[in-house]
Structure formats: structure tokens, C-alpha cells
Amino acid sequence: MDPETHRALHRLRAADLHAQAEAHRLAARIRQPHHIRSRLGWTLVEVGLRLATPRTTALAH
Fold first, then answer.
1. E-only strand ranges, the chain
2. Side-chain half-sphere CA neighbours of 26 within 13 A
3. How far is CA 32 from CA 28, 45, 53, in A?
4. How far is CA 3 from the centre of its chain?
5. C-alpha to C-alpha distance for 2 and 10, rounded to whole angstroms
6. Of 38, 37, 19, which is closest to residue 27 (Cα–Cα)?
7. DSSP symbol at 61
8. How far apart are CA 13 and CA 51, in angstroms?
């Protein structure tokens, strides 16, 4: 393969990989609030279950 052709193909592939990496970074940044909402939601479920579960009290004599 001609070195110039190889270099041109390499530049195109590198540009494509950079674009994919940037798209992944942007998508990961968008997903972050969803992660926080999930954690908050599960925390609220856990608190609700603790409040709904009757406590057992030890009777001291």
C-alpha cells in the first residue's frame, strides 16, 4: 500500500474514533442524572420499607 494512502486512511480512522469517543463522553454525561435518580429512588424505597415494617421491642422484666 502506498504510504500516503495508508496515512490518509489512518487519519480518517483516527478522526472517526475521536468522534465516537466524544459521542460516548456526551452520552455518559447525560446518563449521570438518571443514575442519581435511581440511587435516590432506591433510598426512598428503603426508607419507606423501614417505616412500614413494625419494630419488635424487647420486653424487659
1. none
2. 6
3. 6, 20, 32
4. 41
5. 12
6. 19
7. -
8. 57
- Find where cell 420499607 sits: 49
The single residue listed with the C-alpha cell 478522526 is 15
Mean pLDDT of successive 10-residue stretches along the chain, which has 61 residues: 94 97 88 79 95 77 55
> Where would I find the H helices in 1-61?
3-52
- Name the one residue in this structure whose C-alpha cell is 460516548: 24
**pTM score:** 0.48
60: its cell numbers: 424487659
C-alpha cell at 59: 420486653
C-alpha cell at 18: 475521536
